[in-house]
Amino acid sequence: MNHRTNRSSLALAISVLSSAALLTACGNDGASSVGSDGKTTVSVGVSGNVFDLSIRLADEAGYFDKQNIKIKYVTLTASTGTSALQSNSVQFLNSSPTSFLAGLSKGLPELSVATNGGGNPLGIVVSTAFAKKHSLTADSPAPEVAKALADSTAGASSANTKAEAGIFLKAHGVDPTKLKWVSLPSPAADKAALTKGEVDWFITSEPIPLQVQHEGDGVVVANPKKVPEWGAGQAGYGQVVVVKKDYAKSNSALVKGFATAVQEATTYLDTHASNDKAVVAAARESLPGMPDDVLSAAVAEVDWPTTAKMDADGWKKTVTFVKDGIGAVPDASVNADNWTNTYLP
After folding, report:
1. Cβ proximity of 166 and 327 under 8 Å
2. What is the mean pLDDT of the chain?
């Protein structure tokens, strides 16, 4: 969700491009490697957020193994994921719809082959002092929260999350432009600014808001359950598995195996509690260092689909949200050539 440019992301971008150049020099054409055990190893771009869970669970639970697939993880940012896919540094990319639509707007030959999570798992967390001053709790109604935030200093580390906060505020009659906004370089900086008293609240993707609450430094007063405008039902947003079109064409059986394993994992997530032993174990791999109760709560913020299949109505909602709702990709568009359910069981 975060679309920011800073020194660390620039360094990673340079690293990715350098790696791509090395792979090209070695004659790598994006083909996956097959080991002596007959299993194919593929590189998968992940973001280190809760949406990676379906892929981690598919790996931990043996769903990829059943498809004779081994996974090599490559952690990327929103600004480097697409370039890594295009350079063949990764064969599969767990992508936000925003990044995918941005790639399509540039004419890149990308294809979404599965959806593996829905909604915007965001949290607005206020400082404990602000919560006390305005008598806010985690159960405070949305209109009451928005009213309290009307006269405050807010922090955001991406234009997208700031826009999503604006959607919430405007839905309850609060003009987001009247607030004092502090632009911060990262979610970690959001947290630091809150604990130092530099902002009254911030918005970012989970699990950081829940972690702040767990540590006693704040209270999460808004999430997708309280803000339907962030949910999959209205926003049609979430996460998608993206490949290059030529890779899918040349490796159809492999793509089908990957998509099948991901669907098996999302079905498990949809039908099991967020504190399920297997779910929490996979969440620890996705988000190392987080307490189990934070992990479980973050998992519960996502609308995990029973099926990884996509449809035109869902994409229409997503494009509207990305284009008009948060203004992230002004020329966003998608058609039947950009997504397919062909590789799903």
Report:
1. no
2. 91
